[in-house]
Structure formats: structure tokens, C-alpha cells
Amino acid sequence: MLSITLLVLSCKKEVGKLSFSEVEITTKNNSIVEVFIPKALGNTRIGKSINLKVENYVASLLTIGELEVSDESLSITTQIDAFNTEYQNFKKDFPEIPQYWDAQIDGEVSFQSAEIISIAITAYLNTGGAHGNTTISFLNFDAATGKEISKEKLFTDMDSFKTIAKLYFDEEITDKSILFDPDNFELPVNIGFSEDGVILLYNAYEIAPYATGIIEFKIPFEKVNDYLVFNGL
What we know:
Helices cover 30% and strands 26% of the residues.
């Protein structure tokens, strides 16, 4: 019983001390990649877990082609150099093409409580296509353990939450003709949190053509708090 009590107190102590600072990550030979992400400060188990997941995820965004290694072994600096090398190889193979590559990745803590930490990652990558591509992703973490929470584990009643989400979605999208499948509502891949409530975000191509852009709407906590695994109020 004593060991369990000490573990609980240790977790609470780590949660109380957890804070973040924005850091820039680059390399000596980098000229086309910008990375600014939040980093949990302090040498805590929770902070290390969150930092590792954020780094792995950002590194995966910079990967050109199929991943040859596990996400858990990726580093941002390695992938920054690899991105630059791919661009240099592209210029050697196609010197007549004036296309310039670049990548910009920014992260921020969009919501933090004693129970959950939500981090938003915005990434713009241009690798020689007709246009660059912007995506926004949410990583949600258990504030007591530092482990990532999957979308399905964020809610106690997914069906009830989905019913409410559809009402807000219908208010946001008045012209259903822009959607690939206007008669079928599905929750987005990315669900995050802010002080205003639950954020539901569809990236380009997820439910509508690129020209439609990112579709985002929010649901106030008081409307769905009964279906959240944590207290958002």
C-alpha cells in the first residue's frame, strides 16, 4: 500500500511541475527546414515520454517516401538532414526545374490540465508539386503518465459524442456539395482541445477537395463534458 501511495504522489508531483518551452531544432547543413516545437522542461518521466513522442511524430512528417525504420527511432535532426539531401539530389537530377523545397513545422500546447495535455502540430511541406501541403495534427497525452491517448480513448460514449458533433458539423458546412460523401458523417482523424472546448479538424483531402482547405469547428466543453474521459470544465 505504501509503494502505491508513493507512486501516486510522485505522479502528482511530476504533473504539477510540468511546463513547456518553445525550442528551435535545426542542423549545421540545414537551409530549407524550420522546426519550432514545444518541449516539456525538467527531467521527469512524463516530460520525457511526451518529448519523445512529439519528436518521433515531427521526424516522421519530414520523411520522404516510406519509413524504413520504426517511428520510435526517428530523430528530427536526422530527418532534417535527410530532407535537405533529398532536395539536393532532386536538383542534381532535374537542374532545369526551378522548384524550391521547404518545410515549416510549428507546434504549440493548445490545452493543458491536470488530466490531459493537447499539442497541435502545424506542418507545411513543399517538395516540388503544384503546391505545398499544410496539415494540422493533434497529439493528446495523459498528464499523469505522459502516454498518448488515442482518439477512441478520449470519450466515454463515442456514439453520443458523434451525435452532438454532427449537429455542429452541419452548422459549419452549409453546402454539402463540397464534400466527397455528403450523406455520411464521420469524425475527423484529428481531435484536440483548447480552452474553448473540443476541436474537430479535417485536413485537406480528408472529406473534401484541396481547394476547400482545412475544415475546423469547436464544441464547447459544457455541451460534451459528460462524454469526455476528463473534466474539461
